[in-house]
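Students often ask why inverse folding is considered easier than folding. One informal answer: many sequences map to the same fold, so there is more than one right answer. In these notes we will look at a single instance of the problem. The structure comes first.
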C-alpha cells in the first residue's frame, strides 16, 4: 500500500531546497503558470531555496533564468540544472575529459559540453566516441541522420531526456524523446538517458544545490515523480501541467508522489493526514473508498464517482489513497480539483 505523507507545517519550512521542474510547473512556453510567481515568492520568504531541474536541454542557464525573472520569478543561472549538464557529466564519466562527441541539440547542450570538457565534432566522419542528442526546434532529417551515421559507426548513443511531449501554450508539442525514438528506430540502438526519470539527475542537482533535505516538485508522473521515487527524494505533484488528477489516482507505485497539490501555492500550505482503515481513506472531512472495483465518495451519502467529477483537494487526496490501497487500481473519471466546493 502507498500512502501520502503529512506535514502540519508548510513544506517550504520542512525542506531546505526545492528541486523544481520548469515546463508545466512555472511556465508553459512563454506564458507563466497561474499562481507560480506567488507560490514561489511565498516559499522563498519562508526560507526555501529554489533550484530548477529541467529536462529541457536546449536553452542556456542564463536564458532560463532570464525568462523566469521576466515572468516574476527571480532566478540566477547558478540555480538552473538541465539534462544537458547531466548528459555531459555522463559522457565524461564514461569516456573521460576531452572525449570526442557529436552534439545535436540547442545552445544549452553545446555550452554544457564546452564547459564540461568535451571535444565537440560536427560529423560522424570525425569518429566521435559518443553522440549526445538533445532538443532543438530546428532539428531536421539531416541532423537525425548524422546521429544515426555516428551510432552505426560505433558511437555510444546518449539522450539528454526521453520526454515524448513538450508543453506549449497551444498544447503538447513533440518532445526530445519522440525525436530520439526516430533515431533508435533507424539504428536499433536504445540510448542511455541522462535526464528525468533517471535518479542520477536528482542526485547531481541536490549535490550542486548543497541540499540536505530536498523536495522534488513536478507535473509529469513518468519523469518528475518517477525520478524522485527512484532517487528517494520526496515529491510534490501539481496539476498545472501534463499529468492530471485521474493520472495520479491510477498511477503505479513507481510514479506516486508523496504530496498532492493544485499549484505552487501548496508549497506554503500544510498537508493533512490521510488515514486508511482498511475500507475508507479519510482526509479531514473527506472520505473515499473502493467498493466492487469502483471509486466512491461519501459526500451527502455514499455514491460512485460520475464523469466528469469536481472534487476538493482533500477529496482528491482521499481518492488517491483509496485507489492506491486497493488490490487492483480502479478506473477513475476525469477529476477537476478545487480548494473548496
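Output (designed amino acids):
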Amino acid at each position: 500500500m502507498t500512502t501520502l505523507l503529512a506535514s502540519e507545517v508548510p513544506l517550504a519550512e520542512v525542506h531546505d531546497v526545492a528541486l523544481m521542474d520548469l515546463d508545466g510547473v512555472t511556465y508553459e512556453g512563454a506564458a507563466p503558470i497561474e499562481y507560480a510567481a506567488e507560490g514561489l515568492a511565498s516559499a522563498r520568504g519562508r526560507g526555501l531555496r529554489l533550484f530548477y531541474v529541467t529536462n529541457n536541454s536546449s536553452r542556456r542557464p542564463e536564458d532560463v533564468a532570464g525568462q523566469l525573472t521576466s515572468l516574476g520569478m527571480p532566478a540566477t543561472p547558478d540555480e538552473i540544472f538541465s539534462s544537458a549538464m547531466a548528459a555531459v557529466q555522463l559522457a565524461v564519466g564514461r569516456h573521460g575529459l576531452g572525449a570526442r562527441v557529436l552534439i545535436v541539440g540547442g545552445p544549452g547542450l553545446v555550452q554544457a559540453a564546452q564547459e564540461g570538457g568535451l571535444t565537440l565534432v560536427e560529423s560522424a566522419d570525425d569518429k566521435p566516441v559518443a553522440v549526445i542528442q538533445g532538443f532543438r526546434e530546428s532539428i531536421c532529417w539531416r541532423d537525425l541522420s548524422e546521429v544515426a551515421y555516428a551510432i552505426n559507426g560505433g558511437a555510444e548513443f546518449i539522450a539528454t531526456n526521453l520526454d515524448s511531449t513538450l508543453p506549449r501554450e497551444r498544447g503538447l508539442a513533440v518532445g526530445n524523446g519522440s525525436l530520439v525514438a526516430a533515431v533508435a528506430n533507424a539504428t536499433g540502438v536504445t540510448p542511455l538517458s541522462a535526464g528525468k526519470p533517471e535518479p542520477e539527475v536528482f542526485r547531481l542537482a541536490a549535490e550542486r544545490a548543497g541540499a540536505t533535505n530536498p523536495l522534488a516538485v513536478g507535473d509529469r508522473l513518468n519523469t518528475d515523480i518517477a525520478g524522485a521515487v527512484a532517487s528517494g527524494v520526496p515529491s510534490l505533484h501539481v496539476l498545472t501541467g501534463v499529468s492530471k488528477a485521474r493520472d495520479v489516482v491510477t498511477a503505479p507505485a513507481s510514479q506516486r508522489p508523496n504530496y498532492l497539490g493544485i499549484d505552487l501555492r501548496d508549497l506554503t500550505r500544510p498537508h493533512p493526514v490521510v488515514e486508511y482503515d482498511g475500507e475508507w481513506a479519510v482526509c479531514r472531512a473527506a472520505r473515499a473508498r473502493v467498493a466492487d472495483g469502483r471509486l466512491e465518495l461519501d459526500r451527502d451519502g455514499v455514491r460512485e464517482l460520475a464523469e466528469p467529477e469536481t472534487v476538493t483537494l482533500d477529496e482528491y487526496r482521499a481518492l488517491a489513497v483509496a485507489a492506491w490501497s486497493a488490490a487492483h487500481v480502479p478506473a477513475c473519471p476525469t477529476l477537476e480539483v478545487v480548494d473548496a466546493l
